[in-house]
Amino acid sequence: MDVQEIVSRMSLDEKLRLIAGKDYWHMEGVESAGLPPVMLTDGPHGLRKQAEAADHLGINKSVPSTCFPPACLMASSWDESVAESVGEAIAEECIGEGVSIVLGPGVNIKRSPLCGRNFEYYSEDPLLAGKMGAAFIRGAEKLGIGTSLKHFAANNQEKARMISNSVVDERALREIYLRPFEIAVKEAEPATVMCSYNMINGVYSAENRWLLTDVLRKEWGFGGFVMTDWGAMTDRVKAVKAGLDLEMPGPAPHNAEEVRKAIENGTLAMEELDECVSRLVSFILRAVKVQQRPYSIPLHHETARKAAASSLVLLENHSALPLSADGKYAVIGSLAEHIRYQGAGSSKINPHKVDNILSALDEAGVSYEYAPGYSSATGESSSELIEEALKAAEGKDAVILVLGLPDSYESEGFDRTHMNLPEGELEAASALIASGAKVIALVMAGAPVLLPFRKEVSALLFCYLGGEAAGSAVADVLTGRVNPSGKLAETFPVSENDIPCRECFATSERNVEYRESIFVGYRYYDWAGKEVAYPFGYGLSYTTFSLSGLAVSADSVHHTAEVSVRVRNTGKRSGSEVVQIYTGMTSSRIMRPLRELAAFRKIHLDAGEEQVITFSLGERCFSYYDTETGKFEVESGEYMIYAGVSSRDLLSGVPVVMEGTDSPSGAVTERGVFPDFEKLFSGPLPLIRDDGSINANTPLSQALESERGRRVLGPLVSALEQALEAQGDDSARMMLSMLYDMPLRAVWMFSPQAGDAVRALIE
Ligand code: BGC
After folding, report:
1. Final residue of a structural domain among 287, 320, 340
2. 741 flagged as catalytic
3. Residue 209 located in a structural domain
4. Which residues touch 575 (CB under 8 Å, ≥6 apart)?
5. What pLDDT was estimated at residue 182?
6. Which of 335, 368, 455, 477 has its CA 20 to 30 A from that of 360?
7. How far does the centroid of ligand 1 lie from the alpha carbon of residue 175, in Å?
8. Buried b / exposed e across 542-580, counting CB within 10 Å, b at 16+?
9. Are both 271 and 315 inside the same structural domain?
């Protein structure tokens, strides 16, 4: 039977059941067509299949699987083949576990380094995020496993994520926030897209027809189905009309009733419902055909190790690395033993095994003495721990100092409030540096941190969160078995005060105003002439490379360019370099970043080897989004094309001239000064205002302000709070921080009794 025939035979009841999950992790089957329920689970850097009690926040353990490097590290590979191999390996584990969809990749833009969930995302740059996401999708989908590109869209902070309203001008949406999704959809055709929790310009993503139908399906040609993030459903009828096919988790009998009523009273046409149903059936038909295929867990561990090793970013090296074979070292830092290799929340994997740094150094034959220096759980130190560390460092050739953020500092569900490493770790670092020891610092964190010691250490390797093989990958780079080639996929600012959205990020306001518009990441730092700690695209190697001979031939009418550049390995070791091409308009009539990443490629060269590499730049590399014409347009004038190895280490640009529009429409502003925010919108700012009533979208904190709310919900919330406090681990911390910002409609996901009470209150 084909899709049409199956749908035509389904009863209304069957259709209403199908558009919500069967439970937390399954889609409904279609009994009348003999189609079974299929399973979908998190992602994105491994498989989190829960065999025990279901929850969606990484609380209960899942079946063991390989924990690959989270996106924060994988992006630093700047290597699409790495993301593709990881996608493929995860798909193999999905097949083995009978899972049809992996919930990832996450391609949201890192608007601020403080977003608690940045470890699950790739970059501050839309091209890099989109390309890495597309590669992951290709890897998984070629084996028939569906992916779910998330979180669509403008979900760039964790604070109040289920109720916040991202107020973003359309140009910033199109050029920055939607762009990685567009690339991934057009280039890799994911089977599904997951809508975000938040509103965009006053409309919840789940019921945003402009987003899900006009842009995603009609403009980009998306042919798969859209599901909600867990608990993101607001109004089921509006969502069907918007093109939202699957509500997760399920079942959702109340919403099914709403849809039934709408069909009966004619406000929703059966054809509209059938469109959703057909898209779901068509996926299930594909899923049941997936063939078993053998795979090896040890080989996946190796894939994880290689992915991590080719992504670690060497930020400083003053002849301290690689380690010398006969050197005597001290290893200081409890994280060397209790390695932090992934973040908390729905992406948390239960790995088969974890390589820590100590065991990996043992295996590599490195001679060292270890002292913890601080507690890995809290980052606190003490005079005894520091004394012990100084003692271990005495007489050694160098100290390998392992620092990082404890779990409690960053997680899904809340954002960081500062960029500092824990005080105790910094104290240990200062003491070691002051003792005159040669310090090789390693930092494990899901996002940039301030590195006050960066100019005082002999080497600095930023490890991000590296997955289960992180320890071995770090040892590979330290010993020189692998020559580092990771490059930052995001800027490291000098201070939190430099972050472009510092004043309008994760505030207590429900309206999150994206006042910096298109000036995100290096687009801002370069345009505003801000000093940075480490620029976008930066990373060192144990060899050196030189770029030369940048040549460009441009087609000014069709707005394309062929670019070539010679790359030479000028050092004594083989290694890989990431060649980055940027374009920027010399003098635009509207506001524009100085330059934007247009293409990149990682190439491997032996010592002394040289290669000319070429890039084809398409129209998008020169265009901006014109809000007047509603299209990407090329402005006439001169553009510079740069080639280099970071956004701030470039050969002098080659100018090309493009013919295009002479009257671009867009904001005009002085360099470094944000545009007038209100003027970026055609009408009044799309803010949401609170009318004081209690409804499904009212946050729990607000419902508890009313006497009735307190009476109905107070005891339940206190009980929940006590239970979480007693639990006391990082997932409990995450739930606690999310609890009060949670809308009433979502409370049932945490406790069925609370759900009944909430419904009664709303009704
Ligand atoms: C997260 C999603 C995740 C889902 C299911 C949500 O809380 O935002 O990324 O896929 O839960 O666990």
Report:
1. 287
2. no
3. yes
4. 483, 485, 541, 542, 543, 545, 569, 604, 605
5. 98
6. 455
7. 25
8. bbebebeebebebebeebbbebebebbbebeeebbbbbb
9. no
Residue identified by tokens 């569906």 is 146
Write down the residue that tokens 């009418």 correspond to.
557
Q: How far is the CA of 59 from the centre of ligand 1 (A)?
A: 12
Confidence of residue 761 (pLDDT cuts 50, 70, 90): confident
Which residue owns the Cα nearest ligand 1 atom 6? 230
Per-residue pLDDT, 716: 83
> DSSP secondary-structure letter at 592?
-
Same domain for 48 and 189, yes or no, is yes
Active-site residue (options: 42, 79, 169, 229):
229
DSSP 292-311: P----HHHHHHHHHHHHHTT
Atom from ligand 1 closest to the CA of residue 151 = 9
Among 27, 49, 103, the mutation site with the greatest number of ligand 1 atoms within 8 A of its Cβ is 103
pLDDT at 608: 98
Same domain flag for 552 and 471: no
Q: What is the amino acid identity at position 604?
A: H
* CATH classification at residue 467: 3.40.50.1700
Find, among 480, 447, 459, 349, the residue nearest to 402 by Cα.
459
Burial (Cβ within 10 Å: 0-12, 13-18, ≥19) of residue 752: exposed
Enter the tokens of residue 533.
């700690």
> Is 673 inside any structural domain?
no
Residue nearest ligand 1's atom 4 by CA: 230
How many whole angstroms separate alpha carbon 512 and alpha carbon 680? Answer: 15
| Structure tokens that stand for 382 in this block | 């003490």
645-686 pLDDT, tens digit each:
999 999 999 999 999 999 999 999 999 999 999 999 999 999
Q: How far is the CA of 342 from the centre of ligand 1 (A)?
A: 16
Residue 53: the pLDDT is 67
Residues 67 and 189 reside in one and the same domain = yes
Residue nearest to atom 3 of ligand 1 (CA): 346
Rounded to the nearest angstrom, the distance between the alpha carbon of 755 and the centre of ligand 1 is: 19
Q: What is the CATH number of the domain that holds 29?
A: 3.20.20.300
Segment 263-281 shows an average pLDDT of 98
pLDDT score recorded for residue 59: 66
By residue range, what is the domain housing residue 252?
Answer: 3-287
For range 718-735, the mean pLDDT: 82
* CA pair distance 649, 578, nearest whole angstrom: 12
Assess if residue 685 is contained within a domain: no
- Total domains in the fold of the chain: 4
User: Could you read off the pLDDT of 102-126 as tens digits, one per residue?
Assistant: 999 999 999 999 999 999 999 999 9
Probe target for ligand 1 pocket from 56, 158, 233, with the most ligand atoms within 8 Å of CB: 56
What pLDDT shows up at residue 537? 98
Ligand 1 centre to CA of 319 (Å) is: 44
Q: Could you tell me the pLDDT band of residue 731, with boundaries at 50, 70 and 90?
A: confident
Q: 312-340 pLDDT, tens per residue?
A: 999 999 999 999 999 999 999 999 999 99
640, 662, 684 — which closes off a domain?
A: 662
Report residues whose beta carbon is within 6 angstroms of any ligand 1 atom.
Answer: 42, 56, 103, 150, 229-230, 346
Residues 256 and 310 in one domain: no
In terms of domains, do 355 and 428 share one?
yes
pLDDT tens, 45-78? 999 998 766 666 666 778 999 999 999 999 999 9
Same domain, 217 and 276: yes
| Domain assignment present for 452 | yes
Let me know whether 283 and 310 are in one domain: no
CATH at residue 601: 2.60.40.10
